[in-house]
Specification:
Layout (H helix, E strand, L loop, with lengths): L5 H7 L5 E7 L6 H10 L2 E7 L5 E7 L2 H14 L4 E2 L4 E2 L2 H7 L7 H8 L3 H20 L3 E6 L9 H6 L2 E7 L4 E6 L1 H10 L5 H8 L3 E2 L2
Antiparallel strand pairs: 1-3, 1-4, 1-5, 2-3, 6-8, 6-9, 7-8
């Protein structure tokens, strides 16, 4: 949904999910409390095992009532459990929009979704001109095999040649790379290493970048 002003967006994006982390010593598996957790309305987010014993579990909740029930559940299993006090805010609408972005880790998605939408809007607006300039050069793209790790490690050098990594699939070991036709053709031949004829054939399969 588009909003006319950032004020409108801020007022309509609900602040309705928080997280809290508990250090629980007397259980070694989240499964011990998983069934009972469903009855509280709170949700499991992540878990880390502690070398000294026990687990550190992050939960999310939407109301004080859910938090109270969660507290009772945790203390039922470990009366000495410690509330780490790491309460965070997550703007759920923003998180749901970005969680499916390829190669965006959950940690980074959580960090972005914790930013006040009004401030986040200003950040996006401030960065927009930069991305408009970058996208101007991404006129066509091709998909090529890539077996040399994350291609983003080379992106700075390639951008100097006028081409950009648009997508990367580590499972298929393929990447989509784009740029203006002349720059992309030169990169395919000179940097990627295809012969002139093979580079021309590949460029015939190039698709326009929207």
């Amino acid at each position: 949904m588009a909003y006319k002003t950032w004020k409108d967006a801020y007022e309509q994006i609900a602040l309705n999910e928080k997280t809290i982390t508990w250090h629980i010593d007397h259980i070694n598996s989240f499964g011990n409390i998983e069934k009972e957790l469903r009855q509280t309305g709170a949700k499991y987010v992540s878990m880390d095992r502690i070398k000294s014993g026990g687990i550190k579990v992050k939960f999310s909740y939407n109301s004080q009532g859910q938090k109270n029930k969660l507290t009772q559940l945790v203390l039922k299993h470990d009366i000495d459990a410690v509330d780490e006090g790491l309460q965070e805010v997550r703007y759920t609408n923003i998180y749901n929009k970005i969680k499916g972005i390829k190669n965006l880790s959950r940690k980074d998605a959580d960090m972005i979704a914790a930013i006040d939408p009004f401030i986040l809007g200003k950040v996006i607006k401030a960065l927009a001109p930069f991305y408009e300039d970058v996208n101007e050069g991404r006129k066509v793209s091709v998909t090529v095999d890539w077996e040399h790790g994350n291609p983003n490690d080379y992106s700075a050098d390639w951008e100097a040649e006028g081409v950009f990594v648009l997508d990367y699939d580590p499972r298929k070991k393929e990447m989509e790379i784009g740029g203006e036709e002349k720059a992309l053709a030169a990169w395919i031949e000179m940097t990627y290493g295809l012969s002139k004829n093979a580079a021309r054939a590949l460029m015939r399969s190039a698709k326009r970048v929207k």
